[in-house]
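Long-time lurker, first post. I've been practising inverse folding by hand and with some scripts of my own, and I keep getting stuck on stretches where the structure tokens seem ambiguous. Below is the full token string for one chain I'm working on. Before anyone asks, I'm not after the true native sequence, just a reasonable design that respects the backbone. If someone could post their per-position residues I'd love to compare against what I wrote down in my notebook.
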């Protein structure tokens, strides 16, 4: 039985006071959703004050990115151990904004995934096709390539500890949500890919989140799909009421 994960990606938004206030509002209601795991991922500069707010609550803390090296001369980067030190239990890796704006590759995502797992952090590995790729009928091949590259060399046990987020790039921040059928089709393919790479038992254990314009009014239908195990939420996670409204749809 896979427990739904409702994850908020605050991206490069809010200031310190706003991040603390949002965390307080989410944490105050954290106990109201016993059927789901709740997670917020603030900007890294606000991880520490948000961690202080979340301490003792049921809401987990995650980062939006990390570097794969342990320590050293990597100016501006943050290691998995540093995230653990701040109380993070999750890290988003290979988000489409990092892949397409910062040019992050599958190989870099793979290295970060390995480092996160080694540090005991759950990686949320994002995959998803561009609109042009969907229109060219390449969705399945793009997803297969990203999974093969981003999870290369992972053992079945490590794969089971990893969360995958399917985020069609054309649906992120656009208000154009994938239909439940479109999303479920890719999630089913993803689980089949994992079964082929590992085995059915492993594939059945991996949580696969959907991300892309999830809102309280469309979350119910998406989260009812058999292979959709939660949501990665951008815009709607910046309002406690909307984020919690989506959490309420996770049964
Ligand atoms: C995201 O950033 O992962 C995302 C899904 O954003 P939004 O919910 O705003 O589409």
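-- Answer (accepted) --
I ran through it position by position. Result:
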């Amino acid at each position: 039985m896979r427990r739904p994960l409702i994850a908020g990606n605050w991206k490069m938004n809010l200031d310190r006071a706003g991040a603390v206030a949002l965390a307080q509002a989410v944490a105050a209601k954290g106990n109201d959703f016993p059927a789901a795991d709740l997670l917020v991922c603030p900007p890294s500069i606000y991880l520490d004050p948000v961690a202080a707010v979340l301490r003792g609550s049921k809401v987990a803390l995650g980062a939006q990115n990390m570097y794969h090296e342990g320590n050293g001369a990597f100016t501006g980067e943050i290691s998995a151990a540093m995230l653990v030190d701040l109380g993070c239990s999750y890290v988003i890796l290979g988000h489409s904004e990092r892949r397409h704006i910062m040019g992050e590759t599958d190989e870099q995502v793979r290295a970060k995934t390995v480092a996160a797992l080694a540090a005991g952090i759950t990686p949320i590995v994002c995959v998803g096709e561009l609109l042009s790729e969907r229109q060219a009928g390449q969705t399945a091949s793009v997803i297969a390539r990203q999974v093969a590259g981003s999870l290369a060399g992972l053992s079945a046990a490590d794969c089971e500890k990893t969360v995958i987020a399917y985020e069609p790039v054309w649906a992120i921040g656009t208000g154009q949500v994938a239909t439940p059928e479109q999303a479920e089709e890719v999630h089913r393919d993803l689980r089949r890919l994992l079964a082929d790479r590992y085995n059915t038992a492993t594939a059945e254990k991996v949580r696969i989140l959907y991300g892309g314009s999830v809102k309280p009014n469309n979350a119910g239908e998406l989260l009812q799909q058999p292979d959709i195990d939660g949501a990665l939420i951008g815009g709607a996670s910046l309002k406690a009421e909307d984020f919690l409204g989506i959490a309420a749809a996770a049964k």
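A couple of notes from the structure itself: Residues 9, 167, 172-173, 211-214, 232-236 surround phosphoenolpyruvate (CB under 6 Å). The chain has a mean pLDDT of 97. Happy to go over any region you disagree with.
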